[in-house]
Design goal:
By secondary structure, this protein is α+β, with helices and mostly antiparallel strands. Among the domains are: 161 residues, no CATH class; 65 residues, no CATH class; 223 residues, Mur-like, catalytic domain (UDP-N-acetylmuramoyl-L-alanine:D-glutamate ligase, 3-Layer(aba) Sandwich), CATH 3.40.1190.10. The protein has 24 helices and 32 strands.
Length: 711
């Protein structure tokens, strides 16, 4: 079995409306293999990957079998090797955190080849899942070893390397559920949400509305405390010390115990707690100093506040989530050293270095060793059975406590974020009980963080996940806005430019600023046209990136779309004026196969506009998830009447009128008053009007444009 000719489609393509990997699989001598003839292979696969027994629906393979049929039952009936490979790929993608919504394996050709296609989120991860699935299947066939746990862990680690982080994914998941489109702009975490003039951008948990001044203030912990104290937010007493001697003097003035922390580090690095002696402070001073960013001097010495660590998340003007932390502790058994106890604790499968791991690894850092020293212990000490040894006070945030936060605490958190100037902020709080006001228990806000992590709120180890991504999306797109602009794609042809210009003229009457790309030229209303001699994909992206574009129209060169996939994930209207006719076919006309990327890009609420006399119209209707608008310059044909009777939409010319029909309704648009229209070929005007209608231009406005004002 060999994997040949792997093609990555990064947009809607001939297979589906999602990014898809297509691979030619050469089965060789195994072309006629069936699972019902080798039950031992099936049992090996199930022993390695028991999740294969789940229903096809749970693995997004609803097209392959009825959801009620289990994998074992299907295997008994007989599955091909290609179908097994497809299922394993989908399972591995799901195990890596990227469950596919689409997959397909074709029938096997006479030469022993078939094609497998499946959705991917990141190309490198999709390819790795494919290769691992192949190795798994070969191992089952050849009765060799396959360490499924190790191989899946490799895929999970790769996913953490190539995917966006959990904070960004939480926001994008919320955006997707709201219908807000998004596009990754770099290999990092910069993402555009929305399109054209309605776009916003995020960088992890920061938005394009996040104040850079607020970020700078949050980085300066001493300035932050000064501002918060001035507005009545409880913060610990503290001061900056440039030397160890100054730190000791500051501690004496503040009162013991104290905390020493870097001036501008993050993620809790370099912080030493509950210090009481000069020796401890000298060591802690050096540790904190190392974590400062280049060019920053001194450390912060502040009052040690007793209580538990809490992380509060503020979005806009409200508290949306809260999590409680746990300390890093190991428990003695009377036999093992602290180093050995830490190694044992780190074997917990919930611990790891990745974003997706619920718990981080416990590390014997210099700060941890200093904490042990404070307890008169070393890494080689052997604690008694049941003795708890503290290694770090500010450990993982594990437990959701959103519903427990006292209203006064929430009010202080919002005030703190607004005082610093952040629209999204993570606040570190020390308090014995988050359900009581801070002032009554000596609780304090110790830090305000820009770009806070969201993982502890999205997937807490204990408690209920909070919809923090929804809150951030609502902040950018209030009132249910979706950030979408109308996007219209036109299959490339000699007619495309004329149809595009007509559609643009109609959309301008709606008050839209139109961006249009035809050939290599880009046109944006109010801006000098410019040439962009790049790919279709890049030109389409340029329209959706443009901050002034309120409606986008593009010409799609079908060979490029068939080769690489369409350049945008969605087209609200796809115009297929050049489809091959059943009456007088032309060698330059396109088939349904040629335009499948444009068809698959149309969402359920969108439309495909096509000539009624096109070949394979029924196949076109079946492939389209949205509406199909059929038009005819030959008047109302029997085919149009039949299509409209089935609930379809139609457009045709009748004397001096254009007629738009949907279901039982028909709208007449007189052309008599539109002198400029008479020079426009009706074969161009009909699809343009149908496209504008499908894109949301009201019939009344179209009637007014065509009967009185012209274009």
């Amino acid at each position: 079995m060999e994997l040949r000719q792997i093609v990555a489609f990064h947009g809607p393509n001939r297979w589906a409306g999602v990014p898809t990997l297509e691979v030619l699989v050469d089965l060789g001598s195994l072309a006629n293999w069936r699972s019902d003839t080798a039950p031992v292979v099936v049992e090996r696969l199930l022993s390695w990957l028991p999740a294969l027994e789940e229903t096809p629906a749970s693995l997004n393979l609803g097209h392959t079998a009825e959801p009620s049929e289990s994998f074992r039952k299907l295997a008994e009936i007989g599955l091909s090797l290609a179908s097994l490979l497809e299922r394993i790929v989908c399972l591995l993608e799901s195990s890596a955190g990227t469950p596919p919504r689409f997959s397909h394996s074709s029938s096997i050709n006479s030469d022993g080849t078939c094609r497998l296609a499946f959705e991917f989120e990141e190309e490198d991860l999709g390819r790795a899942c494919l290769e691992t699935a192949k190795q798994c299947l070969l191992a089952a066939l050849n009765d060799t070893t396959f360490d499924a746990a190790t191989e899946i862990r490799k895929l999970v680690d790769l996913a953490d390397d190539v995917r966006l982080g959990p904070s960004t994914r939480a926001i994008l998941s919320a955006a997707q559920s709201r219908g807000v489109p998004y596009r990754r702009l770099t290999t990092g975490s910069l993402v555009q949400l929305g399109e054209g003039a309605r776009q916003h951008r995020i960088w992890t948990a920061e938005t394009d509305q996040t104040s850079s001044i607020g970020e700078d203030i949050a980085q300066d912990k001493e300035l932050t405390k000064k501002l918060l104290r001035a507005v009545g937010v409880p913060v610990p007493q503290g001061r900056v010390a440039e030397t160890a001697d100054e730190a000791w003097a500051a501690a004496q003035a503040i009162g013991f115990p104290v905390v020493i922390k870097p001036r501008d580090a993050n993620h809790g690095r370099g912080i030493s707690f509950e210090l009481t002696t000069r020796e401890q402070m000298v060591e802690a001073f050096d540790l904190a100093l190392r974590e400062n960013k280049e060019g920053t001097s001194g450390v912060i010495v502040e009052q040690f506040a007793r209580g538990l660590a809490h992380r509060l998340l503020v979005v806009g003007d409200r508290l949306v989530a809260a999590a409680r932390g746990q300390m890093d502790i190991v428990t003695g058994n009377g036999r093992s050293t602290i180093t050995e106890l830490v190694e044992e604790e780190n074997r917990d499968p919930r611990r790891g270095q990745n974003y997706t791991d619920p718990l981080g690894m416990i590390e014997l850092t210099d700060v941890a060793i200093l904490e042990l020293k404070r307890q008169e212990l070393t890494v080689e000490s052997i604690p008694a059975a049941g003795q708890e040894v503290l290694l770090r006070l500010n450990g993982d945030m594990t437990t959701d406590e959103t519903c427990d936060v006292h209203p006064a605490v929430a009010e202080r958190a919002v005030l703190a974020a607004q005082t610093v100037g952040l629209n999204i902020a993570g606040l570190d709080v020390i308090a014995a009980d988050i359900g009581e006001p801070l002032e009554s228990q000596g609780g304090v806000i110790i830090e305000v963080n820009a770009g806070p992590g969201l993982a502890m709120h999205v997937a807490p180890l204990y408690g209920k996940p909070q919809p923090v991504g929804d809150a951030i999306v609502e902040l950018m797109f209030p009132g249910g806005e979706d950030g979408c602009i109308p996007i219209i794609g036109i299959a490339g042809s000699t007619e495309a430019a004329s149809i595009a210009q007509l559609i643009a003229a109609l959309l301008r009457k709606l008050g839209r600023r139109v961006g249009m790309t035809v050939g290599s030229e880009v046109f944006v209303d109010g801006q000098r046209p410019y040439s962009l001699p790049v790919s279709d994909r890049d030109r389409i992206c340029s329209l959706l990136l443009h901050p002034r574009v309120e409606a986008a129209i593009f010409e799609c060169h079908t060979p490029e779309a068939l080769k690489d996939g369409l350049g945008c994930e969605r087209t609200d209207v796809s115009v297929l004026a050049c489809l091959k006719s059943t009456a007088v076919p032309s060698s330059t006309d396109l088939t349904v196969d040629d335009v499948l990327p444009l068809v698959h890009s149309v969402p359920p609420g969108g439309s495909v506009v096509a000539p009624a006399n096109a070949a394979e119209v029924e196949r076109l209707v079946a492939a389209c998830r949205g509406h199909v608008v059929l038009y005819s310059i030959e008047g109302e044909t029997p085919q149009l009447r039949e299509h409209q009777a089935r609930g379809g939409r139609v457009a045709f010319g009748l004397l001096d009128n254009l007629v738009l029909g949907t279901g039982p309704n028909a709208f007449f648009l007189p052309l008599k008053g539109a002198n400029s229209i008479t020079t426009v070929p009706r074969q161009h005007l009909l699809p343009a009007v149908a496209a504008a209608w499908s894109a949301g231009v009201p019939v009344e406005l179209l009637r007014d444009i065509l009967s009185r004002t012209g274009l």
